[in-house]
Specification:
The chain is of the alpha+beta class and 138 residues long. The chain contains 4 helices and 6 strands.
Length: 138
């Protein structure tokens, strides 16, 4: 049984915020570098499992690595996608082992023209000393 007090008490101090945000943000940067390299194993290495994705009221939970659809990048390329880049990563909630980011990113073609813009909530957590993405809400 979990200690409920951990869920309602602050878990950080203001002086740690910048360091925590930087470390969690680096996880997002690595994930996107692997995404742009079409490296699903690398992407999985930046996720914590179970990994949860929310789209509207729908919830998808991956219990382990290796769940990306085989044709994911092929379908993305058909749309004209060449790469994804962050427009903003705004930390909105910070604690010692968790940072919530409002992530704004664009999907772009080879010429850099924006195909689509996305704004999502991503939660990055530190588990056993490793930062990883635990939840993405689209």
């Amino acid at each position: 049984m979990s200690d409920f007090a951990k869920f309602i008490e602050p878990q950080h101090s203001e002086e740690l915020d910048a360091e925590l945000i930087h470390a969690a943000s680096k996880c997002l940067d690595r994930f996107t570098a692997f995404f742009n390299a079409c490296d699903t194993d690398g992407m999985d290495g930046e996720l914590h499992f179970p990994h949860v994705m929310l789209s509207g009221s729908e919830r998808l939970a991956w219990l382990e690595a290796g769940q990306h659809p085989i044709d994911f990048f092929a379908k993305l390329r058909v749309s004209g996608w060449h790469h994804t880049q962050y427009e903003a990563k705004e930390p909105v909630l910070v604690s010692r082992d968790k940072v919530h980011f409002v992530v704004t990113y664009s999907r772009r073609n080879k010429s850099g023209v924006i195909l689509t813009m996305h704004e999502n909530l991503w939660i990055v957590t530190r588990v056993s000393g490793k930062w990883g993405i635990s939840l993405r809400s689209y």
